[in-house]
Amino acid sequence: MEVQLDSSFRFHPTLPLDADHYQKCYKAFCGALICCATTSRKSLGTAIDNRLLGVGAILTDKLGRRMEGQQPPIDEPLRHLGVGSGSGRIEGHLLQVLLGTFKQIYSRVLEPSGESIASYQALVQADPSLAEGVEFDWRQQTLEAYQASDDKGRDVKFDVITSMHSIYYGGRMEDKVPYLYNLLTEGGVLLFELKSETDDLSQVQRHFLSPDIPGYRYYTAQKLQSFLDASDIKYDRVDGPRYHIDVTECFDNRSTEGALILDFLSHMRQFRKEVPVERREMFLGLLRQNARPVGDRLMLTHDTSVVTVQRTAGQEFKE
Ligand SMILES: C[S@@+](CC[C@H](N)C(=O)[O-])C[C@H]1O[C@@H](n2cnc3c(N)ncnc32)[C@H](O)[C@@H]1O
């Protein structure tokens, strides 16, 4: 039965205001992700490879086609901008894929969390191919701060811009997407990874979160596509492999891991302590209703999509 909640039930997400706690919750969430391609728990590295399987190929293909006929195409560094790169677990893999085609990459990393940047730097140091092939330019700031300080920056263009699960944070997509599109070189590619509307987590979050409430805006691939359609911007969408989120611990009040996962799923800091009991129970009720038992665990499906936009020669996205 479809549950209709009054909009007064909506959360005003507090988790992103606490960067340290946010990182712990995101780590716990990633630990609860299981790739459905197998019944056993997969390592995060393997899961990332699966998730990126098509994405690297799409980028290389699009950029390769763009560069056909240009001289010399491959020897110039490919310019990449990462938006909300986190600890680089996803982006680092993507850059490795691109290094298969492009010998040198310049990567400007926009990430507000100093702890995440330090983890990303450690990842690079441990990986000679990234350390040698990519010139990193670390910027500890939000996209909005970058945009505000971007006086001459509009002349500085990028061949690839990636925003992997970061579109929810900060400003509205209606402001960010045109800005990022206009930062692309002609034929450059903008890549968003975000939740699909089909996943169980979306079925829970859409009652409590909204695109109009800052902190964590409830966006899905469909919402982004509607915006691009309305703006007459072409795009491609690829659906990633299905994941499960193991939410069993969320229902055990003694579980610290469960508390962190709950904070991430709701984007409410200290969900168990700080969210009023009525809303808490509503949220947990919907979580249970959408979850299904797999053995002795409770799982939500988690579907993500990748939406890519390639800049058309001469086209400006009206900001
Ligand atoms: C869900 S995590 C995704 C991290 C990484 N891209 C990944 O896929 O693993 C969202 C990231 O966006 C960053 N972030 C939050 N607000 C941001 C903003 N306004 N501009 C840019 N990045 C932001 C967070 O610090 C966090 O690292």
Q: In sequence order, what are the helices and strands, one letter per element? A: HEHEHEHHEHEHEHHEEHHHEEE
Ends distance: 41 Å
- Shape call: globular
Spatial strand arrangement across the major sheet: 4-3-2-5-6-11-7
CATH architecture: 3-Layer(aba) Sandwich
Classify the helix fraction into a percent range.
40-55%
CATH class: Alpha Beta
Beta-strand residue fraction: 15-25%
Q: Assign the CATH superfamily.
A: Vaccinia Virus protein VP39
CATH topology: Rossmann fold
Radius of gyration over all CA atoms, rounded: 20 Å
How would you sum up the major sheet? 7 strands, mixed
Number of strands: 11
Protein name: Histamine N-methyltransferase
Organism: Patiria miniata
Describe this structure in words.
- Helix 2 crosses helix 3 and helix 8 packs antiparallel against helix 12.
- The chain has a single domain, classed as Rossmann fold (3-Layer(aba) Sandwich).
- The chain has 319 residues and is of the alpha/beta class.
- The chain contains twelve helices and eleven strands.
- Strands 4-3-2-5-6-11-7 form a seven-stranded mixed β-sheet, sandwiched between helices.
- About 3% of the residues have low confidence.
- S-adenosylmethionine binds next to helix 3 and helix 6.
- It comes from Patiria miniata (Bat star).
- This is Histamine N-methyltransferase.
- InterPro entries: SAM-dependent_MTases_sf.
